[in-house]
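Tokens for chain A. Residues wanted.
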């Protein structure tokens, strides 16, 4: 995968909610562009068992559901994920429907202060959690769509590094829908993820009752050693943590405890 260079930085980059909000629209537009002339029955390599139509419906449905959560400022786990999807009546028009889903999201964003307290399944109990989460749902599935139709994928490296951070920070809270995460236990073993093209270094430490992810740093030299290390361009690391690439893929470098690496990647993707 190649990365674009629109947001380079030499130190740790904090991506603001306004950037997440704008990027949802941009990533959806790229997703829609990939659908132009495409056969929606194509299989999606990144989502085994799914067709391109399944991918479109899932992405738009998530955008609409998250938009409802934002408008309602939910304070507890919702009892249902049922929302009005307004699916195309005749089975066509899916590109337009996905565009309309992103428009719904934009309306929800415009009416919501990112700092509004909200229930969230992850670490950040504010509306900005859902804005960030919606972005990376959309971005990763945009790459899925591009790969399904044979297009080359590119992802801004600062956004990609932010996506790696979002994934790792929230992973300890994901056991309700990713039960394999409960198997990520240990006795102090450490695993480092490192971006090679922008600031981004994360240290994961396993404990008998779970694992912790140290705050992201841009100074790998000061971070100290780890039992296993995974490094690569931010865009590749993003696809790696989401299970779209294997840790033996071109562009990914690993070192250290092979059993720890296998255990992590067997149980961490969602």
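Reply:
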């Amino acid at each position: 995968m190649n990365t674009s260079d629109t947001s380079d930085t030499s130190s740790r980059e904090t991506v603001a909610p306004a950037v997440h909000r704008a990027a949802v629209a941009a990533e959806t537009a790229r997703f829609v562009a990939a659908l132009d002339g495409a056969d929606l029955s194509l299989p999606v390599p990144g989502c085994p068992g799914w067709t391109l139509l399944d991918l479109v419906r899932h992405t738009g449905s998530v955008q609409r559901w998250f938009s409802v959560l934002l408008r309602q400022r939910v304070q507890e786990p919702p009892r249902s994920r049922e929302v009005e999807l307004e699916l195309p009546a005749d089975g066509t028009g899916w590109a337009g429907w996905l565009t309309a889903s992103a428009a719904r999201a934009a309306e929800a964003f415009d009416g919501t202060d990112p700092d509004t307290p909200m229930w969230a399944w992850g670490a950040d109990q504010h509306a900005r959690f859902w804005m960030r989460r919606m972005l990376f749902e959309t971005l990763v599935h945009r790459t899925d769509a591009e790969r399904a139709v044979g297009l080359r994928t590119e992802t801004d490296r600062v956004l990609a590094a932010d996506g790696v951070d979002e994934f790792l920070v929230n992973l300890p809270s994901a056991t309700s829908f990713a039960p394999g995460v409960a198997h990520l236990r240990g006795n102090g073993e450490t695993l480092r993820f490192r971006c090679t093209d922008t600031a981004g270094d994360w240290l994961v430490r396993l404990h008998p009752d779970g694992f912790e992810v140290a705050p992201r740093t841009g100074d790998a030299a000061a971070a100290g050693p780890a039992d296993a290390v995974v490094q690569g361009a931010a865009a590749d690391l993003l696809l790696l943590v989401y299970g779209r690439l294997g840790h033996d893929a071109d562009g990914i470098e690993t070192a250290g405890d092979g059993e720890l690496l296998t255990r992590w990647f067997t149980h961490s993707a969602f």
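Strands lie at 2-4, 154-156, 190-195, 201-207, 210-213, 228-232, 253-256. The chain has two domains: 14-154, 163-267.
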